[in-house]
Amino acid sequence: MIDSSKYYVFYDGECGFCSYWIRWILKNDRKDQFLFSSLQSEFGQKFLNDRGLENKQFSTLFLWRPNSFYLTKSQAVLKIARILGGKYALLGNLNFFPGFISDSVYNIISENRLKLASQQCLVPTESERKKFVESVE
Prior knowledge:
Blueprint: E1 7-11, H1 16-28, E2 34-38, H2 42-50, E3 62-65, E4 69-72, H3 73-84, H4 88-92, H5 99-116, H6 126-129
Parallel strand pairs: 1-2
Antiparallel strand pairs: 1-3, 3-4
């Protein structure tokens, strides 16, 4: 069941760089605001297909708030920082750059993400597993 009070982060589940940042969000999500789903999962594929988005290339991060919005790339990253709050909200305030500039930086990182981190799989703890949505209910 979809929880409209949460923010859903969709990411490349086979990317070590992406897994690193998902672990970082998990660690800093002190208010329990985020749920996660790999783009390769049934739930991730449904999210993409429902919006007519590419469902075979997984180089884009998505942030979705049900019945509200979804953001991609740099705008998603900046919004995540604002939602986490505290010192991370300062990063979120970098949204004064035009989207094409911040997305260009995002695209460069995305194109090189497999080189930037090891290919370690994300292995969530027992309590973190509850925050991952893999199937459509």
